[in-house]
Amino acid sequence: MSGVGKGVAVASIAKILQSKGYRVTAIKIDPYINVDAGTMNPVEHGEVFVTHDGKECDQDLGNYERFLNQNILSANYMTTGSVYKEVIDRERNLEYKGKCVEVVPHIPEEVIRRIEKAGQNDKADIVIVEIGGTVGEYQNVLFLEAARMLHLKRPKAVLFVLVSFLPIPNKIGEMKTKPTQYAVRTLNSAGIQPDFVLCRSKCPLDSRRREKISTFCNIDESSVISAPDVESIYDIPVNFEKDDLGKKILNKLGLRVKKTNMQDWRKMAHGMKNCSASKEIKIGIIGKYFQTGDFVLTDSYVSVIEAVKHAAWANKRRAKIEWINADDFEKNVKSVENLKNYDGIIIPGGFGKRGTEGKILAIQYARENSIPFLGLCLGMQMAVIEFARNVCGMEGANSTEINSKTKYPVIDFIPQQKEQIKNKNYGGTMRLGAYPCKLNKGTISRKAYKQGMIEERHRHRYEFNNDFKDVLEEHGLTIAGINPKQDLVEIIEIKNHPFFVGVQFHPEFLSRPLDAHPLFKAFVKASIKR
Questions:
Q1: Domain limits of the chain?
Q2: How many angstroms separate the Cα of 390 from the Cα of each of 85, 365, 393, 475, 479?
C-alpha cells in the first residue's frame, strides 16, 4: 500500500551499502502518466522535490539525498509519461528503423536503458530502484516487466525486495501474514520472486510469523526482515542492521564488505530522539497544504520538516513542530496572537491565492513582535508584500499571481515567464534547479553561510519586482542576496529583529541530517534565544 515506507526503505538500504564501502545511487519510478511531478497537487501527491539540475520529482528523491548525503539528478527519476514520451519521440524520429513499436518489449527496454544510464552517470557500484505504487496495480505492470527482463539479463546482479504491511487488527491482537502471502503470489504472477521481504508493522516480527512467511512465500527465514514502526526515519538503517541486512544483500550479490562505518549516523539517530524535553523548541509551520479530508498530511512539507529537525539536532535541541493552517487567521484575525506561544515560525512555499492573507497577518505579527521568522519562496514573497503594505504605506500591494490589477505589484513575472504563460506552457517552465546567489556583507544570511557566493535550488514563476527595490530599501528592507546574472532578489531581511529572513529559493532541499543547512541552523539558534 502507499505510504508503507518503500522510499525510506530504499534510502536506508542505500545508506547501509554506502557505509560498507560501495558507491550507491537510487532511482524512483512513478507509475503516473504525468511527465514529472511538477503539475501534481501537493495535497494529493505530497511535496515536489527539485533536483540540482532542475527536475521536479517525487519526494522520495529527497530522502535518497538526505540519507546518502549526495545529489541525485534528473536521470534518476522517471514516470510512465516520461518513458512513453521518449519512446514515441524516438519512433517519430525513425530511431526504431521501421520496426513496429510495441508496449512490450520497447517500453520495458526504455526503462532498463534509463536504469543503466543513471548507474553509469553516478559511477555507481550498486543501483537501487524503487517501483512506486502497489503490487498488482495495472499502472506498474510494465515496470515489473522491466525488472523481470533486467533479472533475466543479469541474473546474478539483480535482487528483489518486497516491502509489505503486516496488520494487527485491534479486536484480534495478532499479527497477520496473509496480505503478505498474497502480495508475494501477485509478484510471482509477474515472474518475480522476492529475495527479501521487509515486514512493516506496528511492532517487531516474531519467530512464528517469520516462519510462516518463509514457508508460504518460498523464501529463507533469514531473508524475512523485521521493519517495525520507529520514532524517526533515521533509525531505520540502524534497525535493518540488527538483521544484518546489508551483509545479506552483499552476500547474495557476491560482494564483500569493504568497511563498516555508521558511527556518525548512529550517534545522530540516537541523539535526535533522546534529546531531553527541557531542550525542546516550539516551531510553527504556517501552510495551506495540511488537510486531506479529516486527516493531516505532513508529506506536503517533508523537506522543511526534516531541515528543522536537522538544524535542531545541530544545536543540540529537539524541535516540536506544529502545523498552523493559514486559512484560520483569515477566519479569525485575533487568533494570530496565538503565535506568541512559538519560539519561531516558518512560512513555506506554495501557489495560488488561498491562505495568502492569513500568511501576511502572521508575518506582520512576527515582524512586530520580534518572533524569529523564516520565509521560503512564497513565504519570502508574502514578507515583501507585508512590508510594502504596512511599513511603506502601499495599500493593496500584492503579487500579480494573486491580484493582476494591483497598484503595487511588488511581486511579478519576469519577462521570460510572461511568454511561457502566454503560450500556456506550464510544465517544467518555472525557474527550476540550482542558481547562484551573491550575499551582501553585514547581513544575517552572509553570517550564516560564512561565504559570499552560494548556490540554491529554485521552484517558482514569480519574482521580487525591482521597480520597487529603492522605495522598499529606503523604508528599511535589506536586500541580502542577489542573483548576479539576472539581477534578481534572492534574499530579503529586516534589521533590528532577532531573525527575519525571506528567501526566494528552497534551502530545505540541501539540508542533510549530518550536515544541517546554515540558514535553518541560524533560524533555530535565534528561536532558542527567544
A1: 276-529
A2: 49, 11, 6, 11, 18
Q: Is residue 462 a contact partner of residue 399, using CB atoms and an 8 Å limit?
A: yes
**For 403-419, how does the pLDDT look when each residue is reduced to its tens digit (9 = 90+)?**
999 999 999 987 777 77
Q: Which of 110, 357, 508, 517 is catalytic?
A: 508
Q: Is the predicted pLDDT of residue 293 greater than 60, yes or no?
A: no
Asked whether 46 and 300 are in contact (CB, 8 A), the reply is yes
pTM passes above 0.70: yes
Cell numbers for 273, please give them: 530522539
At 329, the amino acid letter reads: F
Mind giving me the DSSP string for 377-437? THHHHHHHHHHHHHTS--TT-EETTT-TT-S-EEEEE-HHHHHHHHTT--TT-SEEEEEEE
Active site residue 506: yes
417 versus 173: the higher-pLDDT residue is 173
CATH code for the domain defined by 276-529: 3.40.50.880
What is the Cα–Cα distance from 458 to 454, expressed in whole angstroms? 13
The pLDDT-based confidence of 277 (bands split at 50, 70, 90) is: low
The average confidence (pLDDT) of the chain is 93
Measured in degrees and rounded to the nearest 5, phi and psi for residue 316 equal 60, 40
Which tens digit of pLDDT belongs to each residue from 347-384? 998 888 888 999 999 999 999 999 999 999 999 999 99
The one catalytic residue in 199, 217, 377, 392 is 377
**102 vs 189: CA distance, rounded Å:** 22
Please spell the DSSP secondary structure of 164-177, one letter per residue. EE----TTT-S---
The Cα 131–Cα 144 span in angstroms is 8
Number of H helices, E strands in the chain: 19, 22
- Contacts for 224 with CB less than 8 Å, ≥ 6 apart: 196, 197, 199, 205, 210, 213, 214
DSSP state of 515: B
Check if 57 is active-site: no
Q: Which of 116, 121, 126 is nearest to 22 (CA)?
A: 126
217 catalytic per annotation: no
All three cell numbers of 29, joined, read: 519510478
- pLDDT mean over 389-413: 95
